[in-house]
Amino acid sequence: MPKDQVAERMKRKDYEKELEKLQVELCHLQDYVKENKLRVIVLFEGRDAAGKGGTIKAITEKVSPRVFRVVALPAPSDREKTQLFFQRYMKQFPAGGEIVIFDRSWYNRAGVEYVMGFCSPAEHDRFLALCPQMEKYAIDGGIILIKIWLEVGMDEQERRFNARIDDPVRQWKLSPMDLESFKRWYDYSRARDLMLKKTSTKYAPWYIIRSDDKRRARLNCFAHLLRAIPYKQIRKDKVRLPKRSDKGRYNDQASLRGMNFVAERY
């Protein structure tokens, strides 16, 4: 969407109303995935400050970490550098009843590694050639793969970077690599376009979500996930609390006297 056509930013009240409804549906999806032993991978890519972390946080806020598992791998160790490139990522693939969310993924090779020169041109070419084959292998094996690119505009990225600089609780999000990526905007644009061209396939397409408005982006992401993973609500018996047994009753608060309690400062 051109800059002069950007929609008005969504109001918090409207966002929270829609978010609550979508989070309920996500819990229904969770139950279905767990009961039917589905294996799902959702991977998020995008420029620095595109909103990946906040979107993932919103997705996982109301669901079980035993079903929704977030993977954010650090830089490869010396040992991992000697392995097959995809090896450390495949270790994280889901078992039945799991949804694995990659906060950045094997597509690091098509982005930061390529732009910053952390891999050779030959390694980059090999990745682009083999990546669709690896993904087809996973999909043919029964994995549902959803690839999302969050697209943030140049002006909005700059605004978010400046906000991080001025906010002491968000300064940790601003690394030297982030500053370098800010400088190399057009290099990353070319790398993005080549990645999308080579790896968006019929069986594993890329879906792009504009993220200049974080709230709209998160809701659109929720809605896309709910469309992309077929599910229906699992009927459950209503839960009722059982009556507490009085057997072995004793004063369980008196037994805590003399223990170390945290000082109540608030």
Describe this protein's structure:
This protein is α/β, with parallel strands linked by helices and 266 residues long. It has a single domain (9-233), classed as Rossmann fold (3-Layer(aba) Sandwich), CATH 3.40.50. It contains ten helices and five strands; from the N terminus they run αβαβααβααβαααβα. It has helices at residues 12-35, 52-60, 78-81, 87-90, 112-115, 121-140, 154-166, 176-183, 185-199, 214-228, and strands at residues 39-46, 68-71, 98-103, 143-151, 206-210. It has a five-stranded parallel beta sheet with strand order 2-3-1-4-5, sandwiched between helices. The longest helix has 24 residues, at 12-35. Residues 1-5 have low confidence and may be disordered.
Question: In a nutshell, what does this entry contain?
Answer:
GO terms for molecular function: polyphosphate kinase activity. With 266 residues, the chain is an alpha/beta fold. The chain contains ten helices and five strands, in the order αβαβααβααβαααβα.
Keyword list:
266 residues, alpha/beta, Rossmann fold, 10 helices, 5 strands, 44% helix
Helix share bin: 40-55%
Q: What percentage of amino acids are in beta strands?
A: 5-15%
What characterizes the major β-sheet?
5 strands, parallel
CATH architecture level-2 label:
3-Layer(aba) Sandwich
The counted number of beta strands is 5
Within the largest sheet, what's the order of strands? 2-3-1-4-5
- Work out the helix count: 10
Quote the average pLDDT.
94
Name of the level-1 CATH class: Alpha Beta
CATH fold label? Rossmann fold
Shape label: globular
Radius of gyration: 22 Å
Per CATH, the superfamily is P-loop containing nucleotide triphosphate hydrolases
User: How many domains make up the 3D coordinates?
Assistant: 1
Low-confidence spans: 1-5
Distance between the ends: 47 Å
Q: Pairing-aware structural class of the strands and helices?
A: alpha/beta
Element pattern in H and E: HEHEHHEHHEHHHEH
